[in-house]
Design a protein that fits this description.
With about 280 residues, this protein is α/β, with parallel strands linked by helices. It is built from eight helices and eight strands.
Length: about 280
């Protein structure tokens, strides 16, 4: 089978409900092999069965990991690398919202961990598979709600605010997108981020007591567009507001700030600095 006709393999984090689940259904309908990730084993397997039933696609598999634990992120990456040495699309969609607990398993601010550190770590660990699966795409689901990063109190110990914490984590994810796109620009792997829509009717929005403004289907359409559109084959290092290329908060374009964030992230995730963006997948224990 030629490379162009190989079944594409996509991992979608946080895909047991909302935008992630709908994206999984859309990509399963395009005959992709879809790896569904969730926190709960039973719920994940139920969604796997549902996606198989609705799409008629048997190439659906479930994985569980709690992204409030970086160790579970490492375990997920190890499992994926063993079972899928080639990966074509990684969609970092899993997220924590305003009402989630304050701290992660490692004692970090939870939103910063789930929304940023977890995808930072997972993506770096899965780069060997993405390189083998090139042309490949990495899509980071961010938000139009962005707040500049205060490196003096990045875990918000002095002045915690859940909305600010969420917005800071989403800007960090965009900064990672820009940084990674630059590093991978010669490797046939594109990296883009998007705001999928404002206050869509998802569990996260409803739990926050916010009246939804739109449907999760529209968000899934935007994510699927970034995953599949041939018009984006060479587009990398961009931020989209739904389907439109847009501008992120100014801090995201500051290369020195991005380097500061990257160095901090390597330390916090215990990712070896000398393997950052290299093919070697060895990690600090």
């Amino acid at each position: 089978m030629s490379d162009s006709k190989k079944k594409k393999i996509v991992l979608i984090t946080g895909s047991t409900d909302g935008i992630g689940k709908l994206t999984a259904l859309k990509l399963a309908g395009q005959n992709m092999s879809v790896l569904i990730h969730g926190r709960d084993i039973e719920k994940t397997q139920n969604v796997v069965r549902e996606v198989i039933s609705k799409s008629g696609n048997q190439n659906i598999k479930g994985y569980t990991a709690d992204f409030s634990s970086l160790e579970e992120v490492r375990q997920l990456a190890d499992q994926i690398l063993i079972e899928y040495p080639e990966l074509n699309i990684l969609i970092n969609n899993a997220g924590a919202g305003y009402t989630d607990p304050r701290y992660s398993k490692e004692g970090y601010e939870l939103r910063f961990t789930v929304n940023y550190l977890a995808p930072f770590l997972l993506t770096n660990l899965l780069l060997p598979a993405l390189r083998k699966g090139a042309p490949a795409r990495i899509i980071n689901v961010s938000s139009v709600g962005q707040h500049s990063i205060n490196f003096e109190d990045i875990m918000m110990e002095k002045n915690f605010n859940a909305v600010t914490a969420y917005s800071q984590s989403k800007l960090a994810l965009i900064m990672f997108t820009f940084d990674l796109a630059e590093e991978l620009k010669t490797e046939n792997i594109t990296v883009n981020s998007l705001h999928p829509g404002t206050y869509l009717n998802t569990n996260m929005v409803r739990r926050a007591g916010i009246k939804p403004w739109g449907t999760p289907e529209s968000g899934a359409d935007a994510v699927a567009f970034l995953a599949m559109s041939e018009s984006l084959n060479r587009t990398t290092g961009k931020y989209f507001n739904v389907l439109t290329e847009s501008k992120a908060l100014a801090q995201a374009y500051d290369t020195e700030t991005r380097k500061k964030l990257r160095d901090l992230s390597i330390r916090l995730t215990k990712l070896k600095q000398d393997i950052f963006l290299n093919s070697d997948s060895e990690r600090l224990n």
